[in-house]
Design a protein that fits this description.
Layout lengths: L1 H24 L12 E2 L6 E3 L10 E4 L2 E4 L6 E3 L6 E9 L4 E8 L12 E5 L35 E8 L2 E6 L2 E7 L3 H8 L16 E4 L7 E10 L2
Antiparallel strand pairs: 1-13, 2-5, 3-4, 4-13, 5-12, 6-9, 6-13, 7-8, 7-12, 9-10, 10-11
Length: 231
């Protein structure tokens, strides 16, 4: 009997040590994520553009997923970010069109008056997919990604945006598809030749909100959104 008790105690001690080691191997931040990541998967992290609450058309589907099924107002994060690393999964209904904005302020009527846009698109069905400058993964209207990286409507795509100083990278499904430098001569020339020349505040902020475009028709679903600020 004593032998059984000793064996059970030893097994329990080993289990506790293993659990502690595993917990120590992955530090946990205040928000419950590892490595400094902050979850943006809950609508509690968002609000409507120039609003205090989330528009009713945006709904929380489960703990990691939210979305909308028809055209509605755009979202912005409650917090602002400068240098950051953002990741999320997204899928659209057929012919869908949306976007992720960054460094957006609320100084204009629309979020895209100030925030550069990572285009989310059903390239195969939406007219914008015929132009690489407005296709999925593009820095909308300015920098074009290669073709054939985006997955079809109804399937999950993975987006990553990295912004550090002036340098910005767009990643799509594990592939870097766009990189550019804000305020460089090349960027200034492209902005001057685009519709964004109409809005003097476009791309000028070094810190701002992350935004999600909601004003187009069709459904958009966002999953596993998270962000970390870079040193």
């Amino acid at each position: 009997m004593r032998r059984r008790v000793l064996i059970a105690a030893a097994l329990l001690a080993n289990a506790l040590l293993l659990g502690a080691a595993q917990a120590g191997a992955q530090p946990v931040s205040k928000d419950g994520g590892g490595g400094g990541w902050k979850s943006l998967s809950s609508l509690q992290a968002w609000r409507g553009y120039k609003e205090e609450s989330v528009p009713a058309e945006w709904t929380q589907m489960n703990a990691t997923t939210f979305g909308k099924t028809k055209g509605t107002e755009d979202l912005v994060t409650r917090d602002e970010y400068g240098d950051f690393d953002l990741e999320l999964d997204w899928k659209l209904s057929p012919g869908g069109n949306a976007g992720i904005f960054y460094h957006a302020t609320e100084q204009g009527d629309k979020v895209y008056w100030t925030g550069p846009e990572y285009q989310l698109l059903d390239d195969a069905r939406h007219p914008d997919g015929k132009n690489r400058l407005t296709s999925a993964g593009s820095d909308y209207g300015l920098y074009a990604p290669p073709a054939g990286v985006v997955k079809p409507a109804g399937e999950w795509n993975h987006t990553r945006i990295v912004a550090r100083g002036a340098h910005v990278e767009h990643w799509l499904n594990g592939q870097k598809v766009v990189e550019y430098d804000l305020w460089s001569p090349d960027w200034e020339a492209k902005v001057k030749a685009s519709k964004f020349a109409e809005w003097p505040g476009y791309g000028r902020a070094k810190r701002g909100h992350i935004g999600i475009q909601g004003d187009h028709t069709g459904s958009l679903t966002i999953r596993n959104a998270r962000i970390r600020e870079l040193p």
